[in-house]
């Protein structure tokens, strides 16, 4: 009985960890999290919603990097 429950607990933990890793590896999720990070960094100069919409539209194929101006240029604006 003890061996069976330990194996079951081990399998459940493995499944849980694997599911978290798969969620983190989702390119759309990574893209949207990067948009949020850039919004925090650049504030009103960064169009976070436009960035997130692009993540969904392109299915996470274009991932913004807040330190790479070329990757975030479409989402920057002049704050007036």
UniProtKB/TrEMBL annotation:
The keyword Signal applies. Keywords: Signal. InterPro entries: Eclosion (IPR006825). One of its GO terms (molecular function) is ecdysis-triggering hormone activity. Residues 1-25 form the signal peptide. One of its GO terms (biological process) is ecdysis, chitin-based cuticle. This is Eclosion hormone.
């Amino acid at each position: 009985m003890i061996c069976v429950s330990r194996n079951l607990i081990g399998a459940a933990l493995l499944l849980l960890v694997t599911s978290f890793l798969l969620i983190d590896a989702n390119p759309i999720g990574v893209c949207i999290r990067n948009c949020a990070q850039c919004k925090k960094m650049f504030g009103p100069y960064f169009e976070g919603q436009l960035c997130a919409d692009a993540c969904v539209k392109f299915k996470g194929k274009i991932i913004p990097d807040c330190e790479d101006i070329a990757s975030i240029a479409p989402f920057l604006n002049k704050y007036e």
